[in-house]
C-alpha cells in the first residue's frame, strides 16, 4: 500500500488543501492519503488556532474522497513535532510505503522544524506547487541541502520506491486560497466545536 501523509494545522481547511491532496493522490499513485490535523504547531501562535475538534470536522466536511482519511492521531502522541510523528508511523506500519506531502509554501521555513534533516531521511517527500512558491525549491535550505536526492517530476509516480532521502517537486493547478487570508478575511468566524 502507498500512503501519502499530509499534515498541517488546517486552520481552517480549504479548497487549496483539497487540491494539494487530490494532486498527490493522482500524481503519486497513492492508495490513500492521511489528512493529519495537528493539535498544534510549535512555529505558530496557539491563540490563533481554532479548536482541534472544529478543524477535524471542517476537514471531514471538505475531504469527502473515500481515499482521504482525516485523522488527528498526533494528539495521542503528546508531541507536536513531525519528526517524532513520522518515526511513530514508520515503526507501526512496516509494510506500508509512505510519502510525506507538503505544500511548496512550507519550504521557506522547513529548516526551522525540529530535526528537519531526520524528516527528510524518514520518507520520500513530495512538494506540491503553491501560488507564489513555485521557485521556492531553488532557494530553500532543504532543497539546496538535498539537491542530490531530487527525483525528476516525471518519476513522481515511483517516488514511493525510492529510499529516503528522496524528494520531488510536483507542478499542477494551484489555488490562491490560504488559511491565513481566510482567517484575516473572517476574524472570529471559525466555529467553536
Please provide a written account of the structure.
- The chain has a single domain (2-185), classed as Rossmann fold (3-Layer(aba) Sandwich), CATH 3.40.50.
- It is built from eight helices and six strands; from the N terminus they run βαβαβααβαβααβα.
- The protein has helices at 15-28, 52-62, 74-77, 82-92, 116-120, 136-139, 141-145, 179-185; strands at residues 2-8, 32-37, 68-71, 97-103, 125-128, 167-170.
- The protein has a six-stranded parallel beta sheet with strand order 3-2-1-4-5-6.
- β2, α2 and β3 (68-71) form a beta-alpha-beta unit.
- The chain starts with a strand and ends in an 8-residue tail after the last helix.
Tell me, briefly, the overall form: globular
CATH architecture title: 3-Layer(aba) Sandwich
The number of distinct β-strands equals 6
Order of helices and strands: EHEHEHHEHEHHEH
User: Largest sheet at a glance?
Assistant: 6 strands, parallel
As residue ranges, the low-confidence spans are: 189-193
Radius of gyration: 16 Å
Strand order of the largest sheet: 3-2-1-4-5-6
Q: What is the CATH homology-level superfamily? A: HUPs
- Helix percentage: 25-40%
CATH topology term: Rossmann fold
CATH class: Alpha Beta
Mean pLDDT: 86
Number of helices: 8
Distance between the termini: 34 Å
Report the portion of residues in β strands.
15-25%
Question: Quick gist of this model?
Answer:
It is an enzyme of class 2 (transferase). The protein is of the alpha/beta class and 193 residues long.
Amino acid at each position: 500500500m502507498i500512503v501519502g501523509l499530509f499534515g498541517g494545522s488546517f486552520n481552517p481547511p480549504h479548497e487549496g488543501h483539497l487540491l494539494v491532496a487530490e494532486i498527490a493522490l493522482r500524481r503519486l499513485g497513492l492508495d490513500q492519503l492521511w489528512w493529519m490535523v495537528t493539535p498544534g504547531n510549535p512555529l505558530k501562535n496557539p491563540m490563533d488556532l481554532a479548536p482541534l475538534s472544529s478543524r477535524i470536522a471542517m476537514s471531514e466536511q471538505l475531504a469527502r474522497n473515500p481515499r482521504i482519511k482525516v485523522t488527528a492521531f498526533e494528539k495521542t502522541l503528546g508531541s507536536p513535532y513531525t519528526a517524532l510523528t513520522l518515526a511513530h508511523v514508520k515503526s507501526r506500519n512496516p509494510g506500508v510505503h509512505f510519502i510525506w506531502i507538503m505544500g511548496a509554501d512550507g519550504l521557506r521555513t522547513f529548516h526551522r522544524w525540529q530535526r528537519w534533516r531526520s524528516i527528510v531521511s524518514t520518507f520520500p517527500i513530495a512538494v506540491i506547487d503553491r501560488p507564489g512558491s513555485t521557485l521556492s525549491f531553488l532557494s530553500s535550505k532543504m532543497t539546496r541541502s538535498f539537491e542530490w536526492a531530487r527525483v525528476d517530476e516525471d518519476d513522481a509516480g515511483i517516488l514511493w520506491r525510492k529510499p529516503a532521502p528522496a524528494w520531488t517537486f510536483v507542478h499542477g493547478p494551484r489555488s490562491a486560497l490560504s488559511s491565513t487570508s481566510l482567517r484575516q478575511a473572517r476574524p472570529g468566524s471559525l466555529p467553536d466545536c
